[in-house]
């Protein structure tokens, strides 16, 4: 038994070692060596070749990194970092992200010159200056920080800084400033204790986050934190817990935007690089990149990256990328990219693409495509295709409706699905006017809108020939079975109110019709066909007797009691397309 356990232990040890080696290779592409021999190729092509050899990609902006120069280069064992230095003459900095090397321009160099290093025990006071390498000018607002202790500061107008750091073993001081290449310097103390370095990684999403430029970020982030964001960009590290009163008053100080926390407790409001666990804010939470799995705030949540899990806010959730899960806000939700889950708002939801459920008290707006279910008190608006289901109290609007759209008014450039409403307006759909007669009302007019799959019918009629004058108003739905360009069959169901001597009468006719249509020209067709009618009287008012007298005389009348009758009728008329 013991022998088997030993074998299992060694197997696990080997597997763990393999994983560590794989991870190290994936995260340290700059140190890998490559063999390369190219003549007169653009730098962009050379980068592609290096990436293929290293099985990773380069990420850069063509606007700021010039890669159209034609060069020749030969390498029999240089590191990728030295090759890049040769290609860009040291004016580009390199950041590693899983599967990527990110290039950013750094045309300038800086130098860190320590002035003093002193302190009792394991507490050290480090001061010094930061200079521009070329001009010798002292640099203002450079970020000086120690990664493991999370201590940081900014140089003053004279390029001077001072830091208090508690550490065992080697201290590595780092300096970053926008457009300057990062630099670091090591300090060795007298205590030979091995310490675990804090892992830092680079995230392009965090570097490009807009959360700190939101109105809430501009209002509550200190000037020092904003400068740190410019200097440190997408550098992130993971820490278990953060607590803060406000973004500028927290346990991580000015480094809070570079830290991903497992638990973040913000009494009033807080600022994080991201959350991988739970975040609670009395008033608001601001995050540079991804948040998962629970985030709640009394007023606002602002997330620069993706959100996954449950997000709750008393007023607003604002997500710069995607959300997967449940999002609920008292007033409105804003998602710059895609929703996959459930989105609930007291007033409105705004999203780029939706694949889930949207519900809002007033309206939902989807800028691109909606493949889910949207329900709103007043309106749903979709910029491109709506292939799911939309329900609104007043109107739905989309460029292309491919699913089901239910509202009083449905508007689309192209209606390929089903519009259920009083009006279904589209460029490719029906807009038909019919004038016809039937056995109840001699003169009728109707408007049909929708398409052959499903169209709505709004109608009105009057009886002029009988001594008992009465009116009808109705609504119905229909479907066309198209045989060829000149002939089709319409199957329709409709309900009509019959009115005589005022509007208080409760007389209703439900009607099912089968109408054969013959096209007589490009804009005109004729139709005729039978119908089955069910009449119901719901009350006794002046005029009811007149209508019942007319109904009573219908041939083939089916009597289901005093209030309900049935018979077979007809309709015939002309359609103007």
TrEMBL record:
Residues 1-26 form the signal peptide. Keywords: Signal. The keyword Nucleus does not apply. Pfam families: CarbopepD_reg_2. The keyword Ribonucleoprotein does not apply. It comes from the Bacteria. InterPro entries: CarboxyPept-like_regulatory. This is CarboxypepD_reg-like domain-containing protein.
């Amino acid at each position: 038994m013991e022998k088997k356990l030993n074998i299992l232990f060694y197997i696990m040890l080997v597997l763990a070692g393999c994983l560590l080696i794989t991870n190290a290779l994936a995260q340290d592409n700059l140190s890998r060596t490559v063999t390369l021999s190219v003549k007169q190729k653009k730098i962009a092509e050379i980068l592609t070749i290096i990436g293929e050899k290293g099985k990773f990609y380069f990420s850069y902006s063509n606007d700021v990194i010039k890669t159209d120069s034609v060069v020749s280069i030969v390498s029999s064992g240089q590191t990728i970092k030295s090759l890049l230095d040769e290609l860009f003459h040291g004016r580009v900095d390199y950041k590693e992200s899983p599967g990527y090397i990110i290039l950013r321009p750094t045309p300038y160099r800086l130098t860190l010159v320590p002035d003093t290093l002193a302190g009792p025990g394991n507490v050290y006071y480090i001061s010094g200056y930061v200079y521009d390498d070329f001009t010798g000018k002292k640099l203002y607002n450079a970020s000086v920080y120690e990664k493991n202790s999370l201590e940081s500061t900014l140089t003053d107008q004279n390029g001077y800084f001072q830091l208090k750091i508690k550490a065992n073993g080697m201290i590595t001081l780092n300096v970053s400033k926008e457009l300057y290449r990062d630099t670091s310097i090591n300090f060795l103390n007298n205590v030979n204790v091995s310490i675990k370095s804090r892992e830092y990684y680079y995230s392009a999403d965090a570097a490009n986050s807009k959360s700190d430029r939101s109105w809430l970020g501009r209002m509550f982030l200190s000037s020092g934190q904003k400068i740190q964001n410019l200097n440190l960009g997408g550098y992130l590290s993971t820490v278990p817990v953060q607590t803060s009163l406000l973004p500028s008053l927290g346990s991580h100080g000015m480094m809070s935007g570079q830290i991903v926390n497992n638990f973040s407790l913000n009494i009033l409001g807080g600022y994080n690089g991201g959350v991988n666990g739970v975040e609670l804010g009395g008033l608001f939470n601001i995050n540079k990149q991804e948040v998962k799995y629970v985030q709640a705030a009394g007023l606002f949540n602002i997330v620069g990256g993706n959100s996954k899990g449950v997000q709750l806010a008393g007023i607003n959730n604002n997500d710069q990328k995607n959300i997967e899960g449940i999002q609920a806000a008292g007033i409105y939700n804003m998602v710059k990219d895609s929703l996959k889950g459930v989105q609930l708002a007291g007033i409105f939801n705004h999203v780029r693409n939706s694949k889930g459920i949207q519900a809002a008290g007033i309206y939902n707006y989807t800028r691109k495509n909606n493949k889910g279910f949207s329900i709103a008190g007043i309106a749903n608006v979709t910029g491109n295709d709506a292939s799911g289901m939309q329900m609104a109290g007043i109107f739905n609007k989309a460029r292309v409706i491919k699913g089901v759209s239910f509202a009083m008014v449905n508007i689309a450039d192209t209606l390929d699905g089903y519009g259920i409403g009083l009006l279904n307006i589209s460029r490719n759909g029906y807009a038909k006017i019919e004038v016809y007669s039937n056995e109840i009302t001699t003169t009728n007019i109707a408007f049909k809108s929708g398409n052959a799959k499903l169209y709505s019918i709004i109608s009105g009629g009057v009886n002029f020939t009988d001594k008992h004058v009465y009116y009808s108003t109705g609504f119905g739905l229909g479907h066309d079975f198209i045989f060829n360009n000149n002939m089709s069959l319409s199957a329709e169901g409709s309900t009509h109110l019959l009115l005589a001597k005022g509007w208080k009468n409760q007389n209703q006719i439900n009607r099912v019709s089968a109408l054969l249509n013959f096209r007589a020209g490009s804009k005109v067709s004729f139709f005729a066909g039978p119908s089955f009618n069910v009449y119901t009287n719901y009350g006794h008012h002046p005029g009811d007797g007149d209508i019942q007298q007319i109904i009573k005389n219908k041939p083939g009348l089916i009597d289901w009691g005093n209030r309900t009758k049935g018979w077979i009728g007809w309709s015939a008329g002309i359609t103007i397309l």
